[in-house]
Amino acid sequence: MNEINFQKYLEDNDIDPDTIKIFLLRLREYESYLKKENLNLESVNPKKLVQYTEYLVSANNDSVLDFLRAILNYANYSKKHEFITETIDIVESYNAMDTLFSRIAEIHGEQIRDEIFRDLDIPPLGFHPEKKPNFTKNIMKRVEDNLGKENTIALISPCLHGRPPDDIDGDKKLLAELGIDRFLLKKHQDLIKRLEKHRDENTLEFAQIVDDEVIEFVKNNPTLVGVRKENIIYINKIPYQTKKFLTVKDEKMKKFYLCYCPWIRGALKEGTENELLKEFCHCSAGWYKLYWDQIFEQSILVEPIKTALSGDLECKFALHLP
After folding, report:
1. For residue 163, is it within any domain?
2. pLDDT tens digit string along 128-141?
3. Do both 51 and 86 map to the same domain?
4. Which domain holds residue 45?
5. What is the spatial distance between Cα 321 and Cα 300, in angstroms, rounded to a whole number?
6. Could you tell me the maximum CA-CA distance found in the chain, to the nearest angstrom?
7. What are the residue ranges of helices labelled H in 2-79?
8. Do 177 and 314 reside in the same domain of the chain?
């Protein structure tokens, strides 16, 4: 690692001096760990990143978050996109089960919460994401056994991990000007432009590389933003790894690359998704609900109708207009 150049990159991006010191320290620690295998940041396979975060977890080291933030900055500096993808795999939805833990207590009381989580430890940040479905299987069975199907859906349908801030005021204004159908068309056009910018600048859309094939797939699928039929908007989620989803032949891996959720993705890869509650995908429906509730200023029903967890090769949701 060229510390001088990396530090200058951080300074140029207005990272405060104390944070820069922490980032450099965490990356030095990582390189020291890599020396055991005669590796460094330049030579290590990014897929080995999770081995180190699991090592930190096993050592009860509380530096995982700082390390992952440091790696993301280093990846952007060095243009090592695979580090970004692997980091997102580790951090994506990491707080979901903590949210479930808190939400059960708020709605149903601490005693029921403690009974449901008895003898189960929530996998911490840094835990290998493909090992998480086993926890999901156990905890969701207990939730449904204790609270029933309807209460289980009610717990997870607001989405367990939230979403980044949206321009709600701007979108409300745009919707009022265009109407719902033209609004969705405009959003689809905006998505295509954003992806074309990623392609041209060699940057990532969330966790994935964008090329002409990905853009063509998005152009041909307006439901990736939403298409209205009478009083329902049907929305297909863009695959988590679109390029790999389009090129891989194995059906299990297609579902694996389709799905965003680390709490179930590993089961899709192993072919054990039938052991998980299908209702868990109401959490993904809730990701859309969080947005549209604000747009319409009321609670909107959004439900999954096709998902990888149900054996489909698309994740499709029905959003019922008020």
Report:
1. no
2. 999 999 999 999 99
3. yes
4. 3-91
5. 7
6. 62
7. 3-12, 17-34, 49-58, 64-78
8. yes
Question: Which residue is it, tokens 């509380």?
Answer: 62
Q: Write down the residue that tokens 């690359």 correspond to.
A: 257
Q: Is 64 found in the same domain as 190?
A: no
Among 148, 139, 105, 157, CA closest to 264? 139
What 8-state DSSP symbol labels residue 17?
Answer: H
User: Would you state the torsion angle of the CA atoms of residues 120, 69, 57, 119, taken in this order, to the nearest 10 degrees?
Assistant: -10
Cα separation of 113 and 90, whole Å? 26
In a domain, 161, yes or no: no
Q: At 149, list the tokens.
A: 């199907």
| Residues 278/307, Cβ–Cβ less than 8 Å | yes
**Residue 253 structure tokens:** 């891996």
Classify the C-alpha dihedral 139-142-146-148 as positive or negative. Answer: positive
Domain annotation covers residue 250: yes
Tell me: the pLDDT tens digits for 81-130? Answer: 999 999 999 999 999 999 999 999 999 999 999 999 999 999 999 999 99
Let me know if residue 134 belongs to a domain: yes
Question: What does R_g of the chain's alpha carbons equal in angstroms?
Answer: 21
Residues 34, 144, single domain; the answer is no
At 281, the amino acid letter reads C
Domain co-membership, 33 together with 130: no
Q: How many domains does one find in the chain?
A: 3
Predicted TM-score of the model (pTM): 0.93
User: β-pairing, 302-306 with 232-236?
Assistant: unpaired
Domain stops at, among 58, 91, 124: 91
Helices (H), 79-208: 81-91, 96-108, 110-116, 133-147, 149-156, 168-178, 180-201
